[in-house]
């Protein structure tokens, strides 16, 4: 057998002839003449290597093509399950309102008792810092409602201000 690459038509012609079982191929109208150059001959001339020919006969498969399925555009927001904030609603955060700071020695802390006054570095009426997980996120003012203290947020601290305060501390 020669080293030429056969086309699909040439393979089918050989199969229909009964193959080359007797050593010779039977003449056929589909077989190329010896002096004609076929695309297989061109490919063989271009490849010019001593590897065996790569003959592949792939069976035809019945491919099922289905139309794409899309979610209707008119679906209401209530029908789609919320995932964003609901996922973190039960996460515990430590929220601290910092009225001010002071440094005390251990003996001064031990001397504190009921009614003791601790002097802070902020004056009455100054804004207080609202900290979440030890990071300042807002500033506000202290309010008293029915003998309970609270904080009214007056300013949200942006990232640049947080970074500047962290470097200063």
| Poorly predicted runs of 5 or more residues | 20-32
Query: What is the CATH C-level name of the largest domain?
Result: Mainly Beta
Portion in strands? 15-25%
Cα-atom radius of gyration: 43 Å
CATH architecture of the largest domain: Roll
The helix-and-strand class reads: alpha+beta
> What's the order of the H and E elements?
HHEHEEEH
What is the number of independent domains? 2
What topology, given as strand order, has the largest sheet?
1-2-3-4
User: What is CATH's topology name of the largest domain?
Assistant: Surface presentation of antigens (SPOA)
Secondary structure tally: strands: 4
So what's the overall shape? rod-shaped
Q: Helix segment count?
A: 4
Taking the sheet with the most strands, its summary is: 4 strands, antiparallel
Give the N-to-C terminal Cα separation: 87 Å
Look at the structure and give the mean pLDDT.
Answer: 75
Secondary structure: helix percent: 10-25%
Relevant CATH superfamily of the largest domain: SpoA-like
Verbal overview:
There is one protein chain. With 169 residues, the protein is α+β, with helices and mostly antiparallel strands.
Task: Note the main attributes of this structure.
four-stranded antiparallel beta sheet, Surface presentation of antigens (SPOA), alpha+beta, 4 strands, 17% strand, rod-shaped, 4 helices, single chain, 169 residues, 2 domains
């Amino acid at each position: 057998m020669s080293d030429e690459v056969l086309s699909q038509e040439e393979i089918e012609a050989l199969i229909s002839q009964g193959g080359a079982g007797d050593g010779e191929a039977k003449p056929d109208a589909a077989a190329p003449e010896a002096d004609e150059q076929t695309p297989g001959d061109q490919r063989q001339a271009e490849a010019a290597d001593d590897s065996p020919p790569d003959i592949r006969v792939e069976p035809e498969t019945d491919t099922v093509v289905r139309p794409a399925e899309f979610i209707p555009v008119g679906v209401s927001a209530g029908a789609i399950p919320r995932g964003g904030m609901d996922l973190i609603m039960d996460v515990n955060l430590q929220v601290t309102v910092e009225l001010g700071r002071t440094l005390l020695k251990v003996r001064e802390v031990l001397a504190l008792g009921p009614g003791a006054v601790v002097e802070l570095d902020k004056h009455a009426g100054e804004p207080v810092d609202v900290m979440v997980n030890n990071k300042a996120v807002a500033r506000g003012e202290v309010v008293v409602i029915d003998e309970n203290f609270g904080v009214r947020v007056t300013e949200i601290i942006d990232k640049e201000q947080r970074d500047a305060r962290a470097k200063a501390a």
